[in-house]
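Appendix B. Chain record.
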Amino acid sequence: MDVVVVESPAKAKTINKYLGSNYTVLASFGHVRDLPAKDGSVRPDEDFAMSWEVDGPSSKRLNDIVKAMKDADGLILATDPDREGEAISWHVLEVLQQKKALKDKKVQRVVFNAITKKSVLDAMANPRDLDVPLVDAYLARRALDYLVGFTLSPVLWRKLPGARSAGRVQSVALRLVCDREGEIERFVREDYWQIAALLATPRAEDFETRLTGFEGKKLQKLDIKSADQADDIKSMLEGASFKTASVEAKPTRRNPSPPFTTSTLQQAASSQIGFSASRTMQVAQRLYEGVEIGGETTGLITYMRTDGVQMAPEAIEAARSAIKDEFGDKYLPEKPRLYTSKAKNAQEAHEAVRPTDFSRTPAQVRKFLDADQARLYEIVWKRAIASQMQSAEIERTTVEIEAVNGARNANLRAVGSVIRFDGFLAAYTEQKDDDAEDEDSRRLPEIKAGEALSRRSVTVTQHTTEPPPRYSEASLIRKMEELGIGRPSTYAATLKTLEDRDYVTIDKRRLVPQAKGRLVTAFLENFFERYVEYDFTAALEEKLDEISDGKLSWKDVLRDFWREFSGHVDGTKELRVTDVLDALNEELAPLVFPEREDGSNPRICPRCGTGNLSLKLGKFGAFVGCSNYPECGFTRQLGENPNGDGDGGGDTGDKLLGKDPYTEEEIFLKNGRFGPYVQRGEGKEAKRASIPKGWSPSEMDHEKALALLALPRDVGQHPETGKMISAGIGRYGPFVLHDGTYANLETVEDVFTVGLNRAVSVIAEKKSKFANGKGRATPAALKELGDHPDGGPITVRDGRYGPYVNWGKINATLPKGKDPVSVTVEEALELIVAKGGKAGSGKSGGAKSATAKKAAPKKAAAKKPAAKKAAKKKE
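Structure tokens predicted for this chain:
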């Protein structure tokens, strides 16, 4: 009997069925060890020795593997077929060796690119040894990321309060977003005019043309710069005669794209079905691990972390067979199409993302999938099928037209395309993202050279040049891949980190750098420029690739990097905060000192008129303040428009909203270090109220300010106790309060509108769940999943911090983006186990499951738990 170690319990369950009773398949649940998040986990002075930590749940799983190995003949490491998977196998092997659980038993490594019976059995028949260079590359990457993060982040904390972290890839990705914002700020708009003419053939068929030349001069896009010039050309065209100078029809062939890699899948899912990178990987993971079809769990797609574009020969043959069945012989090329990766050094030696079985069409499997899984599977299937289909045959027609009006002449052009044979377009049409211009695909009528054309109308339109667009997730991933920054498996996690750190926000699917993110980038560009250079980061990635190929020693790469990096960090110890602020004031001048409408000096304090504005650093981050503080208390949030609007607005930084009708005190909208707020009166006794989350400062008016300043609001006396019920906004949002009992309201607006009956009802609901009415209420179940093997119901609930799975005293948060209603009992059990919910722990006295492992020995249980939970495998 052999013990097989895979990563997920869902995968373990499926593979166990494939292998039979001679194997015990156990799950590691991702990484079993990680570097503790504290100083000294990587020690350059000890030749980069690394300390690994096992968290509580991982310790239990490793003990299960150790116990299983006592009666086993050998160990088979079957974790995922990439660098992270190789690393997990190495970690498991290291721990088992330390525990002396292997002795002389055989250890093998197997990899399979798809969770199907054939793929798994083929892999088991062809084991190999652990790929040491691939593990070395993981160790180098992990050490580099740790050293950069834990060396650079403290510098940020000391020199730039409010900044949370820096990272080797994260900071370079942030720089891309911030550099694009700088381009947008520096962009100077230009007005230009374009002229189109609607013409007709002698057969009365209309078509549109655009002006390309005037009086012997070719016109470029921006050449018509005034309305007068445009009107003159229009007048000339309205009196001109038109004639076809030439008609050129040029046949072209459009070839299909290769099947998806990780990054192209993320890009296509973003542009076609609106998925974020992390959501794409979550759904793809589920398709890879498999769904139940015909009573058997089957993987629907191959492994989704890859930068390979090739398909296995048997997959190509299956695709060709499906093309013949679904589309017909004319869509099948004579020979299979072969693709090679454009990546400088494609990391993973496995296939592109493709269906495991091309005969499973999207229509056939839709009933087994949820909506997101069905949509993602459809684009994977279509793209892979299209990659083996005939080219599309397109005829592109260009018509050149002459216009003559006396001695004056002009040139116009009409362009159109006709699809003569759709080829692969019958299966898959790539959608361009918002950054790309669509080709002119208009269809033209029959136009003959030399024939006269009649004019229908001449149209002049004014345009303004637009700055480059902000990055979307898809276009940023494409740019990072183009520059060689990071690896496909890290993109989703990198973008998520930038968002979690409040360095960027996503607005209408565009990445918008926040003030905090721009400060961090400006700081790094000024004082650590080399380490956020695109070329430097890409070169380091190439070295990591060479380590994985066995061409470089991983410790040599670390030594070279650390020698220069640590010296550079030591050089910043004498750096004064004033030096940092001076550099940032210049680097971020458009953000810190935006131009004023009245043209006055944006660096002079608008309140006192004598002080100089400058960046200031507070406990919670940067803001703009006056040099005459404390005599002048002017402050402004970084990035805020200084011009304001309305009475009392403008450069004072405050906006007068009106007066209190009872006290006659003025009410202002202000911005402080903690965000926008309203204030009545002046001095220490002035009443203040923060702008609630979800309210826009630009929409604040006198009425809303009065309402905020009047909080807490008396709702009325409780009919049973006679005590007052009040409504207000607190740390955890809107609430009603009665006799020490707080009950949450759904929206901020409810605070101002809730009546006595509703308030009494909300408080009663809260009290019904707790004897004293002062505890935290247990949310109602959204879905009942059934009983746990050890007894007790498993439910899905929606709490203050999002949906979670509940079993007894264990609450396990659902992955971000997971639809609570779609959770299965298998997924719930995985989450409960990952949270530490071993059999029998959810309820006191619960019965042991027949499949539960034996309890760990008391001696092992008494060990001191690890200080920090090890990170699970990232996407």
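Further analysis of this model is presented in Appendix C.
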